[in-house]
């Protein structure tokens, strides 16, 4: 069970470290709000709310298919493949991105309201987020046999995933609120490379693991 929590945490952390709409919204609120140092907490609570609902929806929607070993193996392989591809793209983008650009100066378009609601709205408006859960997220759930039949494992998976977001977004929010001008571009660059490599290796592991040890039905 500790393995489920740890893997969920590491995968979520690597995703959180990659720049995206939620990070941009967190930075914006941290700068603009009177108590911006706590904005990430409410944003992530909103994000966690919609993610929990989505996990329940995915498990409920796929419940009938969970008795089909072909479905389970296929989704597991697809999830691992997309995680592998995403890792490669992260590393590739690192070398194409100008990290001297001030991260906190990135403009945000769209929703700028309540932090909690924003965590929900920004998540739902990000196509990659839905894509991630439809393939990579569901693939992880299948690989680690997370289901309604194992409520403790389901809770540990969810908590590990959300902790991965909290560990990155909360320090960033506080840092930006206190007047941080930018993240050290060289350090951030290598952190992203490490995350990308982790995604590639873990994606390969998921593919091989589910083929050699297919889920039981």
Describe the structure.
The longest helix has 28 residues. By secondary structure, the protein is mostly helical. Helix content is 73%, strand content 0%. The protein has one domain. The mean pLDDT is 84.
Characterize this entry briefly.
The protein is an all-alpha fold. It has eight helices and no strands. The radius of gyration is 18 Å and the shape is globular.
Please describe the topology of this protein:
Layout: H1 2-17, H2 21-32, H3 39-61, H4 69-94, H5 115-124, H6 127-143, H7 151-177, H8 185-212
Notable features of this structure?
8 helices, mainly alpha, about 220 residues
Q: Determine the fraction of residues in helical runs and give it as a percent range.
A: over 70%
Task: Write down the Rg.
Answer: 18 Å
Low-pLDDT windows of residues:
none
Q: Average pLDDT across residues?
A: 84
Secondary-structure content class? mainly alpha
